[in-house]
Amino acid sequence: MRQPVILLGKGEVSLAAADGDVLVEPAGGGLEALEALVARSPRAAVVTSGGDEGFFRASLCLERGVKAVVLRRGAFSEAHEKELAARARSFGRELFVHDDARGYGRVPAGSERVQVGAPEVAAWEAAVRVAAGESRRAAAIGLDVDAAWEEAAEAAAPLPMDAPVPGLSENLEEVAFANGDKPVLYLVVPARSLDAVRARHPGAAMALARAEALPLAVEGATGRRIEGASGEATVHAFFSTNPDLAARAASLWEQGSSRNAAAIGELLGYPPCCTAAFVALADRRNNAALVYVTAARTRALGAAFHPLLDVAVRRVVPFTPCSFGCERAATVASRVVAALPREQAEALTRALTRPVLYLDEARAVALEGAQPNGNVITFESARFLPAPAPLDPEGELFARKLFGALFNGGGTLECTDDAFEVRGASFTRRLGRTSPRLGALLPFSGLSG
Q1: What contacts 238, CB < 8 A, 6 or more positions away?
Q2: pLDDT in tens, 86-102
């Protein structure tokens, strides 16, 4: 019996001439149904939808080993077709377009790749560079902060900072390593702390990707790592109870962490589906863009937002999940949380089970007492999340005051294409959005929306 063809998406196509079984994505089946179809090892996938829905279905098939993916001709922009073709080439697959009038055509890969799901990455990164050293300008990237909002921010109390979980390990990846879930532990360690980190793993061999420590800075907002003349001296350290595995991981990293991402991911114990989705990406350097891409993919594939994968509040897993509904990633996270002392585990779980308004790695807000309802969220209060890639102190304070003015007193938040709007019984506050269009509502309460 021939392997089946799978038909994904909401568009209509005719497969009357198909030789063998045709398996159709069930309406409303979500990620679980897609996973089940791809697991049938189809010989081809036909994607009938366009937009994010179709794009991430096609990418999923390419990542999971479907040899031929066929798009409905005209369903995608040329840039998105060429991006999928680049992904097909990287995985050794084939990408075609088809319609009844012209038949099949192979899609060539483009020279320029695009980060589908992220908001205008080039303009965003340019805005970050232009605003460097200008605190208020950096705090307002993507927001329409006019004179009235400047005045409101000056008068507002800063949004309270979210409280850390007492005693929680700085690197939860070390908990996963102690659990035995990782053949190799990878840490970027300040050179001054290397001996202390090594002492925490007395039974493991250590290999350094580079013997010398190099300065490393993290760019505010994007979270991009920048090696160069500024920043603290750091080393890339790999630990394993098997010395050969630690040495292999360090060697692969030295040879090229990007081109060896799949092999390194396997050594680090990352779920293969998450590693493949990461390998597929056009650009892996902008950490904030990865949050947007993962959120867009989660929605496009009909997955729920699993609270233990809330990377905006705390990275329980160190890798980028293929979606925020990935059960394999959630299982890794669950084992980490289960290994924590009970009070820490409960506090961390409470912290993660909140919707987040995410702008970038410097500006994110968790909503307390929140109830999602479709595209709006009713909340009681808000907290500014500690930033993995913070602005300077003045810029962070202005951002906290700006969001303090927006979220004061609770209400109902709605994110439209043009603005963030908070409505209460006696007020409506509207903070406009500009280009680059930053801001995504991440419904990590466990309910999709």
Answers
A1: 184, 185, 186, 206, 207, 208, 209, 246, 247, 249, 250, 253
A2: 999 999 999 999 998 89
Cis omega before residue 436 (within 30°)? Answer: yes
pLDDT in tens, 119-150: 999 999 999 999 999 999 999 999 999 999 99
Backbone angles phi and psi of 386, in degrees to 5? -55, 135
> Distance (Å, rounded) from C-alpha 277 to C-alpha 87?
10
Instruction: For the beta carbon of residue 68, count every other beta carbon within 10 angstroms.
Output: 18
Smallest CA-to-CA distance from 388 within 220, 178, 245, 169 is with 220
Distances (CA, A) of 38 to 64, 67, 118, 228: 7, 11, 25, 43
Q: How far apart are CA 255 and CA 248, in angstroms?
A: 11
CB 3 within 8 A of CB 42: yes
Whether 293 and 249 have beta carbons less than 8 Å apart is answered as: no
Does the pTM surpass 0.85? The reply is yes
